[in-house]
Amino acid sequence: MSGLTKSPWIIHYDASSCNGCDIEVLACLTPLFDVERLGVMNTGNPKHADIFLVTGAVNEQSRDVIRNIYNQMPEPKVVVAVGICASSGGIFRECYNISGGVDSVIPVDVYVPGCAARPEAIVDGVVQALGVLTKKQADFKAAANSRDEIVYRRAEKSDAPEILALQKTAGQCEAEIYNDENLPALQQTLGELQNDFDKAIYIKAVINGKIIGSVRGQASNGTGFVSGISVHPYFQRRDIGHRLVQELEKALPDAKRFEAFTGRPNERALHLLGALGYHEFKTEPFTPAITWVHLEKERK
Ligand code: SF4
Predict the structure, then answer these.
(1) Taking the mean position of all CA atoms in its chain, how far away is CA 140?
(2) With 60 as the cut, is the pLDDT of residue 3 above it?
(3) Whole-number average pLDDT of the chain
(4) Where are the alpha helices (DSSP H) in the chain?
(5) Which residue in 149, 268, 295, 297 has the fewest CB atoms around it within 10 Å?
(6) Where do the H-state alpha helices sit in 73-226?
(7) Closest C-alpha to 70, from 79, 61, 60, 59
């Protein structure tokens, strides 16, 4: 993640713009203003994006899309509202179907003024966004190096957006191991995760109020099923995954045995579960690059 601010990736969404601001965003990306020379890349995939550029005011149709894109982006991430419509609702502010600017739905870090926002102002906004991204990245690193205590507790449904963002961040690192992005954690939507809280429990690891690890568990017929071990990349190799699984096992008192699964060749996850006493008992192919490995253990 060290190249994050040297080559940030941008995702652009038109919330209900008149297209004036969108044309200026495109001008930034094409050869005249050419933000690619600053290392900035445009992507259509939120899981790859660091900066979320939004144009236009928020209406009934765009509200859920904005939330969904934002929640799919890994941490740290920055939101830039481009143009007066995205900043405050602009001339459409009083319309019956407009809820306001982008900050009526998600937190906004940088506001770019103008109607339409000029390309120079948009480039300036992106440069400011890089500063915010650097600061957020430094905060994460400082937390990772701090001696503050990590607290483990049961997550609530309201934690779902933060857990989803964590899953995307950790899932990207895991996908690099497999060279395959078909992992369930990377495909899950916020709605699916929120619904999952009705049947499963999640344990979260929290430092300074920020969720940096999570695991999912469910008990059925005396067996506790463990899955979705996610730890933010800055906090890996600190036994957080180990402790999360132990806390989950404690939170499933009716389970006499446990099952967990992970993918091969993710040797780190296999090692973590092996150190907790899990033994491999079944494998099944998932994709040509990923083989699911099922592991079990009896409660001692
Ligand atoms: S700020 Fe102006 S140009 Fe941009 S979307 Fe709104 S009305 Fe269109």
Answers:
(1) 14
(2) no
(3) 88
(4) 20-29, 60-72, 83-88, 119-145, 160-178, 184-187, 190-196, 240-251, 267-275
(5) 149
(6) 83-88, 119-145, 160-178, 184-187, 190-196
(7) 79
Q: Cα separation of 166 and 161, whole Å? A: 9
Considering Cα of 115, then 117, then 121, then 125, what sign does the dihedral take? positive
Please tell me the predicted confidence (pLDDT) of residue 147. 67
| pLDDT at site 4 | 59
Q: What is the whole-number distance in angstroms between the Cα of residue 116 and the centre of ligand 1?
A: 5
Q: What is the mean pLDDT of the segment spanning 105-119? A: 91
Residue 11 host element (H or E):
strand 9-14
Residue labelled with tokens 């036994």: 239
Q: How far is CA 222 from CA 89, 228, 298, in A?
A: 54, 20, 11
| Pocket of ligand 1, beta carbon within 6 A | 17-18, 20-21, 55-56, 83-85, 90, 115-116
The helix (run of H) or strand (run of E) holding residue 298 is: strand 291-298
CB neighbours of residue 2 within 10 Å:
6
The 10s digit of each residue's pLDDT in 131-172 is 999 888 888 777 777 767 889 999 999 999 889 888 888 887
- What pLDDT is attached to residue 115? 94
Reference 17, options 62, 51, 52; nearest CA is 62
**In a mutational test of the pocket of ligand 1, which residue from 12, 13, 21 has the highest number of ligand atoms less than 8 Å from its CB?**
21
User: Ligand 1 centroid to 108 CA: how many Å?
Assistant: 18
Residue 20 phi, psi (nearest 5): -60, -50
Tokens 């033994």 label which residue? 279
